[in-house]
Structure formats: structure tokens, C-alpha cells
Design brief:
By secondary structure, the chain is of the alpha+beta class. Helix content is 20%, strand content 34%.
Length: 220
Amino acid sequence: MPHLTQSPVVGRNFMTTSYIQFDNPKSVTQNLKDGQLKSSFKKVLVSILTNIIPKANPDFDNKIEDVDKWLVEFETETGIPIREIGLDNEGRVLFKMHYKNNDGYWTDNNLLLNDFKEKFNATKLDKEFFEWKWNIFDKISDFEIEIYKYEILSTGADGGHIYLTTEIEYLQQTRTLVIYFANKSDEEKIKVNRTIKLVGRLLDEGIHQSLSLLDTKLID
């Protein structure tokens, strides 16, 4: 069952937009030693990450820790953020917002374009690249599968997240499927040599890329 596409933002075609990308601030602070960030900058990051980021994102709150890079669209004249995309460390789209009943992390606070440039060392992004990533998310469809042969791998980040790889027949082709779990509790249940049933959101970016099963859950 394919996801419904988001309704276009009224008036988007009548405004000039700018686009930036930046590393997830939380991952930056985790990778640097204490002396490598000025204390004032640390305070800014802590404030943003604990106070400004809203919690009205029921579908994606559990994915914030997995974001490696952010792509954000702004209204150029006002500097107000309009749309945002979270990417993992492989460049895959984890989520986009505003989307359905998810308000956004960066688009629902008081930060403007210049704030992002100054605080996050943001770099300019092409509109075409942003739109390409934005539209990919709508190509994701619900998917259910049962597998027996699979390899268990780990990211090693944030205490380690388990994911799986396997080979499946999809649209009459043999494809690699990479499986990312929605919950740590499901990851801990995975054992080798055991048939498992899974449901998640399938992302197909073309025959030259692996299939990705996102937000996967075990079916009892």
C-alpha cells in the first residue's frame, strides 16, 4: 500500500527559496572531545536539542537519533524554514516534514536561515537535490516479508543498532534487501537460523541500489 503524497504548500511557487545541508548537531558533539567546542557553542546546541526541537512528530520522533545530515528549505526573504529532510549515514531519507501530522524539528522553532549558517556550519544545497530527496520518500510503500537466510550486522552507534541484509526476489529480479528496525526491542529478538516475519516501509531507489526496509517491525 503506497503512502499518500503530501499536499503542496500554498503559495510555494510565488516565493524564492534557499537550501542548506548540515551535520546533525548532536552527532557532532558526540564525536568531538570536550576541548574542541567552545563552551558557548555547546550551550547553544544543548538549548536547541532539548528546548527548541518540538515533540509533535509522532511518526518520526524515534528516528531523530539516526539522522546524520539535515537538508532544509527556507523562504529566502524571511529566512523562515519551510521543509526539512533527515538523512542517515548512507544518505537514505529517514523522514521529511512537514508531513501528515508531523510538524517538523527545525521548521517549528525560532531559528532562521542565518542562525543555521552561523551555528551549524551549514553549506549551500541545490534545489534539484532537495526535491529529489523529498520525492523519494513518497515512493516508499508498505511491505511484508518472511525470511530465513539473513546476515546480522551492527552500526556500532548509540550502543549499537542491529540491521539485517538478505537476498530476495523482487519484481522478477534478485535484489539485496537491507532491513532497519523501528524499535530496539525487536532488534534484540533477532537470532540466526530462525524464520522471521517482518513488516516495514520498502524503499526502492532503482536496480543499482539495495532495497531498504525502513521502520521494520517483527510480526509474531
